[in-house]
């Protein structure tokens, strides 16, 4: 990457996404086999055929007519009444099917806008369950635990309803955007590599620390809504291509812009928001981060990034790219499967497509009160 490592000083500081990544498990953990075998039941011994004279199926008169030296032979019917019991193999179940079973037992039907169904036939559901396995290095027990916690959280928090809500313009306008890019004019679900989704957190546009971060739950609601907006752009609900442990194109680029930030010494409100955001995203949005760029970060804060390397999993830290100048961001995508992606980025980040506020989608923002609009106009014309 182009710039030397520097700090990610504000709200979703590392290990934040892990704030879109689940906590990494030990690298030495072995993946659960694709098939979990259930031991077959032990075979029961076959019941011995009864002597003919003890069988009710043979009339006494017939038995008496037979010579004494003739061996008694049980009729076929008598043998069939005592069949030899053979062991039966229990149907094997894959880890993905095990997660589906756990999700059904929990009852909440949705994750990231995907209505969960049988992953054997439903690709979007397969993607969801595989991501939870990937996030936990194939450990089924850990993946199940994380999935169930996500389902409980979504049932309580209702993120899709948060996405439909409008947020205070004074607190959140201009702080978060989503953009997406495709290689062709029409996106082909069979080639998910040809679409890229970006979230942009522009905390330098914060008007008031106390207003934006003072109400922790309101901030979290807005931040979750922005993530759900990005997930809608990812089009998981209509995906047609499955993922594996090594192949997963359904991930998001994140850019955190700290230009003009005046609160490098974080207030208690900012620290609380950062801590809780990390916790919520790590638990409920695993394996969704492709790369994360911290731009316009003062070089003097580089020592913090170096310290961060000691705390964050190696596979996650490789996805973090601090940059002192945001204009250099466009140059980071020269090898993208989308030709000319860098040039299609906002001008603030080295692209040629126009300003971010004109290109990006925001969460729903409440209209400013008429009185405030008139006051702003009066000030601008004074």
Keywords:
382 residues; alpha/beta; Phosphatidylinositol Transfer Protein Sec14p; 2 domains; five-stranded mixed sheet; 14 helices; 7 strands; 9% strand
Write up this protein:
The chain is α/β, with parallel strands linked by helices and 382 residues long. The chain folds into 2 domains: 95-157, no CATH class; 166-381, CRAL-TRIO lipid binding domain (Phosphatidylinositol Transfer Protein Sec14p), CATH 3.40.525.10. The protein has helices at 60-65, 76-80, 95-106, 123-135, 140-157, 159-164, 169-172, 209-214, 216-234, 268-284, 302-308, 314-317, 356-359, 370-381, and strands at 110-111, 114-115, 176-182, 195-202, 252-257, 289-295, 320-322. The strands form 2 sheets. Strands 3-4-5-6-7 form a 5-stranded mixed sheet. It has a two-stranded antiparallel ribbon with strand order 1-2. Helix 10 (268-284) links the parallel strand 5 (252-257) and strand 6 (289-295). Helix 3 (95-106) crosses helix 4, helix 3 runs parallel beside helix 5 and helix 9 runs parallel beside helix 10. The protein is globular and about 55 Å long. The two termini are 47 Å apart. Pfam families: CRAL_TRIO, CRAL_TRIO_N. It is a peripheral membrane protein. Residues 217-357 form the CRAL-TRIO domain.
Q: What is the rounded distance between the termini?
A: 47 Å
Largest beta-sheet details: 5 strands, mixed
Please tally the β strands and state the result. 7
User: What percent of the residues sit in helical stretches (DSSP H or I)?
Assistant: 25-40%
Q: Uncertain runs with pLDDT below 50, 5 residues or more? A: 1-11, 13-90
* Estimated share of beta-strand residues: 5-15%
CATH topology of the largest domain: Phosphatidylinositol Transfer Protein Sec14p
Shape: globular
Residue-averaged pLDDT = 78
Q: How many distinct domains?
A: 2
Oligomer: single chain
Membrane topology: Peripheral membrane protein
Domain CRAL-TRIO: 217-357
Cofactor: heme b
Catalytic activity: a 1,2-diacyl-sn-glycero-3-phospho-(1D-myo-inositol)(in) = a 1,2-diacyl-sn-glycero-3-phospho-(1D-myo-inositol)(out)
